[in-house]
Design a protein that fits this description.
Elements (H helix, E strand, L loop, with lengths): L4 H64 L3 H5 L2 H11 L5 E6 L5 E4 L14 H10 L3 E2 L3 E3 L4 E11 L5 E9 L17 E5 L5 E4 L21 E7 L2 E9 L6 E7 H52 L12 H52 L3 H24 L5 E2 H9 L10 E4 L4 E2 L1 H20 L9 E9 L2 E9 L5 H7 L3 H14 L2 E7 L2 E9 L5 H10 L1
Parallel strand pairs: 13-15
Antiparallel strand pairs: 1-2, 1-6, 3-5, 4-5, 5-6, 7-8, 7-11, 9-10, 10-11, 12-14, 15-16, 16-18, 17-18
Length: about 550
């Protein structure tokens, strides 16, 4: 069906406006998601920072206990000396050292001078648990009778040399952990607290959450680790919880959901306004662009019809760059069509030429394989291997037809099927030399036949023979040498091989196709072929293309 330009203009405006609103909706959704991820990252960072600070404090206390556990005074049962050493070690800190026996009686307490009458342990439950487990642990917060304030203990059980078991203890005031709960690492509106396993506040940035009181969110033990939401007394909260495996405590950061979502709500409002403005501007712009586009499209359609009729199309100037590019493409299409037709005709002639060459080579291989075969199986195997060698040369020719075939790659390709397990017995050296397809086929067949003879009669027929293939470009010639050494010489076999297809390839095809000069030498430990080929004959294909294109 056909519609007037006005219909397409309206459709174009809608196409521009609707995506604008959809885009705004996507941006709003992505903004909210990004905001949530940012807050989650910040909260996790904050609670992780508090957790690391608390665990550093506790790790330091464990290290101090390890040090004091090696005291000679402790080993000898000299508690007065131990008291003096511990007081000196902990001087200037807010940490105190205690020794508690299994009856929960304090033997040493550096909060008071040595010899002062000491109370029983203020938290016998955690102390007894540490002795029963026989491993170090951290207590929950409790009110210390000697300190007369909220404290927590770090325990390390130890058995003295006389077999007596004691509990080495470091006690620390809970208020000292306030510096670990640093409000500077929190976002505005957020608070953080350290809560023990019973839900009691150890330290908090919120002045309402006093040390030793129950945390106001009463379901603390069931809080999931990570980010969660909770409703308490009609108020929604966002909470991040992290667990300290060292202390058994929780680090909690919380804020009212309304405070957290306020920046996102503001962003949503501005995004809505921006989306509406963008949609209006897009609609106005679409009207103007559609008018210009409709005019230019009509001109392009006219040129396309001319191209379809086989007429020449000239490039036109257009207001829209993309349409001008299309116009140039239409103008170039006619020229490209003529060029493509010429290339197709050339490729057809080239395929016919290459096919005739291949058939000639295969016919020669067939005749020589039949003449030298003793039976049908021998003929089939010999002919199959020669065709395989020709196929490898053809693969290289096809893969590198535009750049030429590298002689090194051709040599490795042809000798690879004959290379023994000890690859060092086949040595190939020479500079980079590029061959045209015809030369690569001829040399590939020659190398295949030389390798076949070496495997049957020459250096590769035993376990120690070596084949060396090398070439150098000297002046206007390529000097190629095939040398076999450490071979078992069988002059009758050598004489017979010179009547076979390999010698035909070397002496006739190399000589006729490439104007090569060949010398055959029989050494005491192997044969040698020396081949001299004019370099110009190795790239005759270029001249052929030049003559054809001219």
């Amino acid at each position: 069906m056909h519609y007037p330009v006005l219909f397409y203009l309206v459709c174009m405006i809608l196409v521009l406006i609707v995506p604008a609103f959809l885009f705004s909706m996507v941006v709003l959704k992505r903004t909210n998601e990004a905001q949530e991820r940012i807050f989650e990252s910040l909260l996790r960072t904050s609670t992780s920072a508090v957790n690391r600070a608390v665990e550093r404090e506790i790790s330091g206390m464990f290290s101090t206990l390890n040090f004091l556990s090696t005291s000679e005074s402790l080993v000898q049962g000299d508690f007065a000396g131990l008291h003096a050493q511990a007081s000196k070690t902990l001087e200037g800190t807010d940490i105190y050292f205690l020794v508690i026996d299994p009856t929960m009686r304090q033997l040493v307490n550096t909060r008071v001078p040595y010899g002062t009458a000491l109370n029983m342990a203020s938290d016998p439950t955690s102390a007894s648990l540490a002795l029963a487990r026989g491993e170090r642990m951290v207590s929950d917060i409790f009110f210390g009778r000697t300190a007369q304030q909220w404290v927590f203990n770090v325990y390390q059980p130890m058995r003295l040399s006389n077999g007596r078991q004691v509990l080495l203890t470091l006690t620390k005031n809970a208020d000292a952990l306030r510096r670990a709960v640093n409000p500077d690492v929190l976002s505005p509106g957020w608070n953080a607290a350290v809560i023990d396993s019973t839900g009691t506040v150890i330290a908090s940035t919120d002045e309402k959450q006093k040390t030793g009181t129950e945390f106001f969110l009463r379901v603390v033990p069931s809080l999931r680790l990570g980010v969660s939401t909770m409703r308490q007394d009609g108020t929604n909260y966002q909470i991040v919880t992290e667990f300290s495996s060292l202390a058994g405590w929780r680090m909690i950061a919380w804020a009212k959901s309304s405070d957290v979502q306020a920046p996102a709500a503001s962003s949503i409002r501005w995004l809505v306004i921006g989306g509406v403005v963008f949609a209006l501007l897009a609609a106005i712009g679409a009207v103007g662009i559609a008018r210009v586009l409709s005019r230019d499209v009509r001109l392009l359609a006219h040129d396309a019809r001319r191209l379809g009729h086989g007429e020449r199309v000239a490039a036109r100037p257009y207001a829209i760059t993309e349409l001008e590019t299309v116009s140039r493409a239409l103008a170039e299409a006619a020229d490209a069509r003529v060029k493509s037709e010429n290339e197709v005709r050339f490729l057809m002639r080239e395929v016919a030429h290459r096919s005739k060459n291949q058939l000639t080579v295969i016919q020669a291989m067939l005749n020589q394989s039949a003449a030298g075969a003793e039976n049908a199986a021998d003929f089939a195997e010999t002919f199959r291997k020669r065709v395989a060698g020709l196929a490898r040369s053809t693969d290289l020719m096809i893969a590198n037809a535009s750049d030429g075939i590298n002689l090194m790659e051709l040599a490795k390709n042809q000798l690879k099927p004959f290379t023994p397990d000890d690859a060092a017995r086949v040595r190939i050296t020479g500079p980079a030399v590029l061959l045209d397809p015809q030369a690569s086929q001829t040399l590939g067949m020659a190398l295949h036949e030389l390798s076949t003879n070496a495997t049957k009669y020459g250096a590769l027929a035993n376990e120690r023979g070596i084949v060396s293939l090398s070439w150098v470009a000297k002046g206007e010639d390529l000097n190629l040498v095939w040398r076999e050494s450490k071979a078992s010489i069988d002059r009758e076999a050598i004489a017979a091989s010179r009547k076979g297809f390999g010698s035909v390839v070397l002496e006739r095809m190399l000589g006729m196709a490439l104007d090569a000069k060949l010398d055959f030498i029989v050494h005491d430990d192997g044969i040698e072929w020396r081949v001299t080929i004019p370099l110009a004959r190795l790239r005759d294909e270029e001249a052929h293309h030049a003559r054809h294109n001219s």
